[in-house]
Request: fold
Amino acid sequence: MAKIKLTKNELKTQRDSMARFQRYLPTLQLKKQQLQMEMRGLDLLIREKKDEEQEARAKLSSWIQLYSEPIDLSPYAQIDQLHTSFGNIAGVNIPILDDLVFQDVAINLFETDAWTDEGVRVMKQLTRLRVERQIFEEQHRLLAEELRITTQRVNLFEKIKIPEAKENIRIIRIFMGDQQTAAVARSKIAKGKSA
Reply:
């Protein structure tokens, strides 16, 4: 704890500081709660996207043997444009997926197998799910970082700054009370000597 001055000005400074800390603390606590709620929602969304991905892969398992032949479907499911914007949650800028556009590549029906259409559709679906999950994970990471910082600030105010200001006010009041008592005692002694 830093050494404090035992004066009326310091007492006012400490009272002002404590009032400021107590005024900002509820705002920080609300921000912390909002971030926690958003992160829980993102956890659910990430889990849903993983489940959808697993479900799509499970549907593939019945005819996945067709893919044992060396065929490259990746040119048909290439991402052409990824449109994202930024949203704001509790003062944190997070990426939001607006649109995902795949390259429009015509499938030659004479040179490809009959199941290529379905394979391309499933690859696009899996790619879209993976991109959505990655965006949600990035949002979660950014919110988790902000939650960590906000939690540190809440703890700083609750556990250090407010108790420290209260203790400083208490010490200054005791000192000033002792000074006032000593002044009264000195004046009575001086009055007694002069009488």
